[in-house]
Amino acid sequence: MTTSTEPSPIVRAFGGATVGFECPSCKRIQVVPEAGFHWLNGEQPMDWAKRQSAECCGPWRCDTHGKELKRGHSCSECRTAEDAAKLQKKYESATKLALSEYDGTYLYREGFGREGFFRVDDLDDMKRSGAVPDWAFGCDVRTVTEDDCDLEDHVAEGVLSDHHEDAYDWVDDEKVKAASKLIFEACADIKTYDTDYSCVVLLSGEQG
What we know:
It contains five helices and ten strands, in the order E-E-E-H-E-E-H-E-E-E-H-E-H-H-E.
């Protein structure tokens, strides 16, 4: 971010060192920190303090696009470019598959479907409306596991948390195991799809 303001140095009396800088607008003083703080990101303490004072009351502008910004806000064009670069990097590093080689149920591409997810079976309808992307990330399926449904820890650390330390000795382990199994069976049909950024499915041939 750039600014047109020029902060005034605060100098110790009788020719001492500069200890801070004063914002020309609000007169707030930014003290020069000691070297080595991680938030300096390698910048010299004197330069950091002067820059902080210069940017204190703005105006703030994007160095790349020249847009005026609100305090603490980044440039939307820069964010869009950064997001596009990250997406391109993921695309380039992923394994490319034709749709016929992909055996998954869902695909993911930001801006398509619910939160970016859409079913492979929906591609025909999407094609008729001209809404098929040229490619999409594959998806992995995640199910509920027996470990997810294990109630032993929940009983020991949740149900019995306000009881004495030997309370679990009176718990019927077999019934806890049976209840865990029942919950696992109840959740057997649950499937959640997570984006697999290592796989790109090429859909350019599926477009209308």
